[in-house]
Predict the 3D structure of the following.
Amino acid sequence: MRSAAAAYPAGDEVLIRIEDLWRDFVMRSGTIHALAGVSLDIRRGRTLALVGESGSGKTTLGNQILGTDTPTSGRILFEGRDMPARRDTQMRRRIQVVQQSPYTTLNPKRTVRQILDLPLSIHDGGPRRQRRERIAELLEIVGIPSDFMERHPHSLSGGQRQRVALARALASKPDVIVLDEPTSSLDVSVQARILRLLVDLQARYGLTYLFITHDLSVVRNIADEVAVLYRGHVVEHGTTPELFRAPRHRYTTMLLSSIPVLSEEEEALKPAWDWDVTATAAEPPSTGTCPFLPRCPHAVASCSLGVPPRVATSPTNWHACCNPRPEGADADAR
Amino acid sequence: MSTDPVFSIENLHLRIRQFEGEAHILNGVNLHLRAGERVALVGESGCGKSSTAMMSLGLMEARSMRAEGRIILDGTDLLSLRRRGWQGVRGRQISMIFQDPGAALNPVFTVGDQLVTAIRRGNPSKSRSDAQGLATDGLRQVHINDPERVMSSYPFQLSGGLNQRVLITMALINRPKVVVADEPGSALDVTVQEQTLRLMTELCADVDAAVLLISHNLGVVRRFAQRIYVMYSGTIVEEADTATLFSAPRHPYTKALLAAVPRLTGERLPEPIPGRVPDYTDPPVGCRFRPRCPHQRSECVDPPFAEPAPGHRVRCVL
């Protein structure tokens, strides 16, 4: 695997820049900030993983990038240019999506060929014969036998369906694919195959991935960078090896320590966390403080004074924590 | 810890008639739980682990189903029970914690109503107010600080983590001997899942209930269980204590499964398992993993259970 260097290699170009993005949902019970001032860069040809618990805003952010949802305020730049909320065909061609459940995202009444033909006919795939050749090519790329073309999704396994979904995303030759939990509904043995395919495709076509997931072990193996989301805030961001080796934000620490692992060797890589089984996650949505404050056992006075500012810990990594986990904390504890 | 099993499944076969033919879902499952023991049944989707759980609670009552073997709880063969017989058993001596707490609770009754019903079902002589007191205490035991509020709430008014605690309370409230937990917390976030597992460990020790944890997540299983059964295609292929299974797995399927899990060391991508799960209506004779196994040979047609160490059993000729 590509190892992410301490600093970004020269020429690592920012493809998508997210600037102070807000998305508010106004409910009867009050306004929910699904995204509360998110700023992030997505680099070309790299994988940025978006992690966080359900309701943290991962999918909302993915939708903003896809253009299927409009922000309340803030902007997204693509190759330095402002991306409008309403995208034209060209923009839609360049950003594609693979969603979580291949059981609900493929039209059960269409054959594999018809499913793949739709994006081709929208994005100018040429005359029928040319599109047919392209479909065969796409199936080969994702490792589906070409005689599956006239099959319906119900006769495919979960892994095969996800391959078809991936082929559909690739049909328009995109630059970016938003992968929204692409392997969470698959068994590990199948997941391993899809992950390999994703890595392979990225190397072949220089794809940029926004990888939305809650599975941190997967993130460790396939992402170049990680952004940790908590209640609409990015609380920590940086290169994967560094973030996993030395998490600083307390929420990141809690998250990493909750990963179920298979060996003592991995156990030693997890940060320590004092688990309090009595704690319940019933917390009021708070604004103007650290979003993690109600659950944080390490809170200090300054946590409630405002949303904590970003603190850079290296050229690539930063966190937004008032009382961060000290660096090398576990080494001292052992 | 006593060595006599409190619960055991002996040579359980399950066949279900389908359009394609008769599917041989469970193919001679053997497992046992000792009192207070935490045991896990792990395998991929469709391997039969949930069918085993459902059979254990008498929840598979399809007319097209044919079951053989025995499921013994405290000397009673559960397979021989009819509807009436189950009433004194299910929820009292053996209970279940379901995967998705949001779906397992009834949305039109308050949590309190549902807990009281569960208690009075086990103990019809208990008065309503006694049961209410018991339920409140039960919720306090799962560290719910404001049990009164939770009792009067509907499940949709509570978070997933709280509902999960309610389910755990409900499963343990009649102090069953055995609890079957089907992927508890896996519908929830990892941090909540971690809390759930800790809570279950603590509480099951309190009431001395044996737990059969059904899971596909090897990491979760390692965290929770003392002993593990690995299931593949309706067969137990390996059983061992947790430390042995992870440090010295013997069956090729166990090894392949372990290699397929992404590791935190991040050194390389996980290894896929070639091939796919066999067709249950026409499974391979003998070892069902044989078509996918890198070590297959002719003896695989009827592999015996080898016992490389006491308590470590492997259904493989290797």
Notes: The radius of gyration of chain A is 21 Å.
